[in-house]
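User: Structure please.
Assistant: Input sequence and predicted structure:
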Amino acid sequence: MASFNKAILMGNLTNDPDIRRVGEKDVVKFALAVNNPFREGKVLFMDCEYWRGGGVVNFLYKGTAVLVDGELDQQSWEKDGQKRSKIVLNVNAIQLVGGKKERAEEEDFVSEFR
């Protein structure tokens, strides 16, 4: 049986991204708040990791509206003897879909970074 793992989400960053150097690469970690259009008041909070870095990081901050696509990954670890896990979106591409006027050079820009 074949399987498929692809997720596309549009939402707003819940905080400024956390950028860390891991070996030879930078990883950008952030969380998205995604409103459910069919259930008012229901919000999905998704942790995201973007390993490509690049210029897009300069445009990411709390409140930024983005469209992301990637694959879902279940991360597992142990803390204080307790097994824990969470679902994370490994982002392949980020598309900016607007921004706050005071932080953006253009009012309604759409830029894609891969």
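The chain has one domain: 7-113.
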